[in-house]
Structures are given as C-alpha cells and as structure tokens.
Amino acid sequence: MTRRTLVLIALGAFVTTLDNTIVAAGAPSIARDLALDLGSLQWIALGYMLPFAGLLLVAGTSIDRWGRRPALFGGLLAFGLGAAAGGLATSAGLLVAARVVQGAAAAFLVPGLLSLLRANLDARGRTLGAAVWTACLAAALALGPALGGLLSEYLGWGWIFFVNLPFVAAMLVLLPGTVPRGRDPDAPRPAAGAMTAVTASLVLLTAALVELGEHPRTGVALLAGGCVLGAAFVVRERRAPARLVPAELTGNRVFAGSLAVQVLWGLGISGIVFFTPLLHQDFLGLDPVRAGLPLALVAVAVVAATPLVARAVDRHGPHRTVAAGLGVVAAGLLALAVVNHLPAVLPRIPGLVLIGAGSAFTTPLTSHALDVVAERQAGTASGLLTASRELSSALGVALIGAVLTAVRGLRLDAGAPPGTALATGYTAGLLAAAGLTLAGALLAVRVLRGRSAGTSSPGDKRAVP
C-alpha cells in the first residue's frame, strides 16, 4: 500500500505541475500559430492556474464528504479529456477552455492525492511522501519547459497536451488498489456561494495585474471589482455558520503561516519559470529545445539536495530548514539578476543550481502543515495548501509579467533593441522575486515553530505533544 501510494502521489504531483510549466517553451510556437500577443499568451497558463486555485477550497471539502476514490476517478477522466481537447484546439478560445477544464479537474486531483499523506501513511511515511511530492513538483517545474520545447519543435505544440494522457492512464490503473472507498457524510456541505465569490475575485485580481501595464484604466476597474468580491467573501466567512475555510485551520498559527510562506515562495518562482524560456529564445537566440533545457539544472539540484532534507529537519527543525531553503532560492535569483545582461547560458548555471537546491529544503512546509491538523480535515487542509500554491503561481505569472512588461516598455520607448529591453524587464522581475522569497524566509522563522496537540496519525505511537 505504501509503495503504491507513493507512486500515485509522485505521478499526480508531476503531471498536474507539468501542465503548469510545459507551455512555457512552446509558448512562442502557440503565439505564432494562434496570433497571440504577450498579454494574451499569459492566459494559456492562467486558464489552468485560476480554476485550479479557485476550486481547491470547495474541492477539499467535497473530497472529505464524498470520498477520495470518486473524486480522484472523476478528476482523472476530466483532466485527460481537457488534455486531449487542448492538443486538438484550433483557436485561442478553445485552447483556454480546454485549460480551464484541466485546471478544474486538477483542483480535485491534488488535494485528494495530498490527503493520502495523512490517511494512508504513518509519520515517517508522510515525511517521505512530502519529499517525493515536492521533488516531483520541482522536477516538473524545471523539466516542463525543456519537454515543451522538445515536443513543440519536433512534433508540434499539440503534443504538449497529449503527453499528459499516459500519466492519466497509469494513475487510473493504480487507483482501485490504493485509494479506499471511505467517505464522511458528516463533513460540511461545499459552500458554493463563497466559492463563486472567491474564484471571481481571484480571476479579476489576476486579470488586473495582466492589464495594468498596457491598459491602466481597465486594470484599475478589474482591481476594484476583485477587491469588492474579496471583501464580500471575507464578510461572508465571518458571518456564515458553515465556513468555506474552517476556523480551526485559520486559527492555527503554524498552518496559516505555512499558507503565507507558500504564497510568497510561489510568487517569487512561478513567473520566473514561465518567462525564462521566452528570454532564452528572444535574448539569447536559442531554439525552443535549448531555451528550456537550462531549467533542467533546477531539477537536478532538487534531486541532489533532497536526501539532505530529513537530516536538516531533525537537526535544525522545519522552520529553520524552510527559511534556509528560501534564502538560498533568493540568492539564486539575485545571482541570475547579476549576470542577466550577459548573452550567454554558462554564467546563469550557478543561480539555477542555487534555486533548485534551495527549493528542495522547502519540502517540510507541506508535511509540517499537514501534521498540525486533524485527520478529518485532511482533505480541506490539503486543498488550502495547494490553493495557496496555485494562487501564488497564477499571481506570480501575472505579477512578474506586469513588472517585465512595464520595464520592457520603458526601455523600448528609450530606443533599446527588443531583446535588450526584454532582458532588462526580466532582471527587474528577478529582483522582485528575490524580495518576495526573502520575505517568505523571514516569515518561516517566525511562524513555523511548534506543533498543535491532538493530531495523532496512522502508525503514531502517541499523540503529538
């Protein structure tokens, strides 16, 4: 059971994250075929990330109520259908719609898989499972652009989406013998009204970031609408008898702090990953395959550093381990910023290695956050953790894109060549990302200390003190 659980978790972590990143290197090919500008191109990524983030909260509650196996089975089928539709799409509208279907399906897949850490594994297995999850997540972040470039150059960009189908098939085979049929009929009903408000707020706020650089009035209007809906959601949560986000979770300092740290990490990394292959093509002059290949170094560094994580947690605690990892990520981003004016790949390698190695040491963030919640809320807690990551990914693409677009526009107005203007905007994005990641490191030291009582797990000999 443990081995099958780990394999299922690994496949799910990889494929759902791969779908976030694989479009990056193929983006120029998609833009040429479908006549998309930079702003429109971002929606190919955001069309997946936003429904993913917006539905995760209600998905976690639904999984607790209806059971993991039905949720995972339906999610896998929808994910596969969305992938097939995306590969066959002939217009931007159809492609974005297919991405929305995949994002909605992933919203049920990811918390269902993450909740298996709490339900199927003991404390030691959870630590290993969280390490596997984060390693596969980071590997997909790094390998996605390279694989996307390879497929788009030699087979066509449609294969960026078709490549998901073997993963879906393998997970469907593993599912019956790994995931129990159990369900909790006493779990709260999903709060559809709150879900609608928070999802609409996220969409408007992200769209505002995309539009502010080139269409300030539209961006301000979207920002205002998103803030109003966000405020309405907060008011509703305070007054509602059945909250979308349980008070036991928001009142848990360690869990709430983990959400905040994860948001800052995602804001710093996701936009950089999305725009790096574009920089490599337009500034360094690389083809799609070589443009995405340097990000594979991030995956290699993650894999190399992962065996050291457990020892670091035992010796220094999860709060110091996560903080140190985020500090190393920030150092890597700054190292890239220092050499970004050079039109060569080699000087970028140390920064990429630091980003990967540091990311490996953020592994305890997930396992520690799940350790401090009760098993009956594992699905909801997993949904919140993943929602914070996906929300930060979407906002990260939009935020770094806004910084990049604004600075690039200023440089173009000053007469700089397009490639140089893009590189200057990318440097500004790196500096913003480093600042956000450092803020996450400082927060981790303060909020990740300690554990909550009464969260014993399968295989634990005693309750957590």
From TrEMBL:
Stretches assigned to the Major facilitator superfamily (MFS) profile domain: 5-452
Residue ranges crossing the lipid bilayer per the database entry: 40-59, 71-90, 96-116, 128-151, 157-179, 191-210, 216-235, 255-279, 291-310, 322-343, 349-370, 391-410, 422-445
InterPro entries: MFS, MFS_dom, MFS_trans_sf, Sugar_transporter_CS
Main location: membrane
Claim: Protein transport is one of the keywords in the record: no
Subcellular location: Cell membrane
GO cellular component: plasma membrane
Name of the protein in question: Predicted arabinose efflux permease, MFS family
Organism of this sequence: Amycolatopsis pretoriensis
